[in-house]
Amino acid sequence: MNYGEYPIFMQRAQGSRLYDVDGNEYIDWMMGFGALPLGHADPDVTRAISEAAATGAHFATATEIEIEVAELLQKVIPNAEAVRFANTGTEAIMAVIRLARGYTGRPKILKFEGHYHGWYDDVLAASNPLPPGAAELDSPAVTIADSRGLNRHALDDTIVAPWNDLPALEKAIEQHSGEIAAVITEGVMANMGVIPPAPGYLDALQELCRKNEILFVLDETVTGFRIALGGCQEYYKLSPDIVTFGKALGCGLPVAAFAGRLDVMRALAGGTVLHYGTHNASRIGMHAARASLSKLMHDHGAAFRYIWDLADRFANGMSELFRRTGTPAIIQRVGPMFQIMFTDKPSIRDYREYCLYVERKKYQQFSWKLFEHGIYTSPAATLHSIVTVAHSPEDVEKTLSAMDSVLRGQG
């Protein structure tokens, strides 16, 4: 189990802090699996939620607030010609896969090793790391189902390819010429710690999709509203056909969305491609999203300049700490997203290298010891930490001090 014998039971939270049922205080670097870009109980978001709840939760009709949130998204998302709301990142991906198949008339989708797109059967393959002895650098693409209980034909139309490997992608597309409706990728591999795309890789992927009339789907459930206002498509200057969001969009509430080219999104009109849901564009969630987005957009995205600067300071401090203590570990990050990887390699570039070279158990034990020092970070090496607006330089210094104590065996 990730947490050892039992998880820590939390009772309340405020800003960068969590408090457990025994009254212990923690600096939180997990932040609701990245769903809290403003930290816990942000006053503007909590006020918006309270005001919305006091005037009705669900009207079963259109509301002005969903239009307002969609228009805010269009201001920061370059390709958002049309926007549709869902509840979770998984639901958004489910809808997009159906939309891609309905629009193109093609049956297959292509995903990548190590990328997680929710618990939908059609994409639940090669999302979990293999045991170190089972991984090989030059083996065929890993297509192992991540769960029991899948429909036995669920992965028949799912192609899995290695990520950050352009020749492998070209080969997979060539082998299934005219059959692939969509290529689905994260902008940053965020289910194996943090693995950035190789320089030029996402641009080349996008071009391959255009050349082969395949829809390019960018899953920003994890990266959206966390590394930049416009997410990975802004940071890496991409133009996906469809993009999905979740997590940070609702600032702690279940809000998700997908957006993209108008001609593609129009396939949803009139139920040609079905996408229903009682709680899609939930009124309270929309108010939370508007409050959060407005705050993140303030002063031309000053929040992102702050968290990038603080993340630089934190990452530099951790790297120096590893050097000083002789710890074989690296920091992999994109802006405020980061993960510590215990390895003697200078970098981890893909799923295979992660499985082979990262000491996952050592990281887990490290995180457990940090709990004892009041530092709350994911005990799963596959996940990552996040710097938010709520974190302070003092939080960074306290965390570095705790890490120093643990690495020196003093904690």
Number of domains as seen in the coordinates = 2
Beta-strand content bin: 15-25%
Q: Could you report the average pLDDT, rounded to the nearest whole number? A: 95
Q: Give the overall shape.
A: globular
Strands, total number:
14
Radius of gyration: 21 Å
Helix content: 25-40%
As residue ranges, the low-confidence spans are none
CATH homologous superfamily annotation of the largest domain? Type I PLP-dependent aspartate aminotransferase-like (Major domain)
Under CATH at level 1, the class of the largest domain stands as Alpha Beta
What is the topology, as strand order, of the major beta sheet? 4-10-9-8-7-5-6
N-to-C span? 22 Å
CATH architecture of the largest domain: 3-Layer(aba) Sandwich
**Helix-strand category:** alpha/beta
Task: Report on the architecture of this protein.
This protein is an alpha/beta fold and 411 residues long. The protein has two domains: 10-42 and 302-407, Aspartate Aminotransferase, domain 1; 43-294, Type I PLP-dependent aspartate aminotransferase-like (Major domain) (Aspartate Aminotransferase, domain 2). It has twelve helices and 14 strands. The strands form three sheets. It has a seven-stranded mixed β-sheet with strand order 4-10-9-8-7-5-6, with helices on both faces. A four-stranded mixed β-sheet has the order 1-2-3-13. A three-stranded antiparallel β-sheet has the order 11-12-14. A hairpin with a 4-residue loop joins strand 2 and strand 3. It is globular and about 60 Å long. The two termini are 22 Å apart. The relative contact order is 0.18. The mean pLDDT is 95.
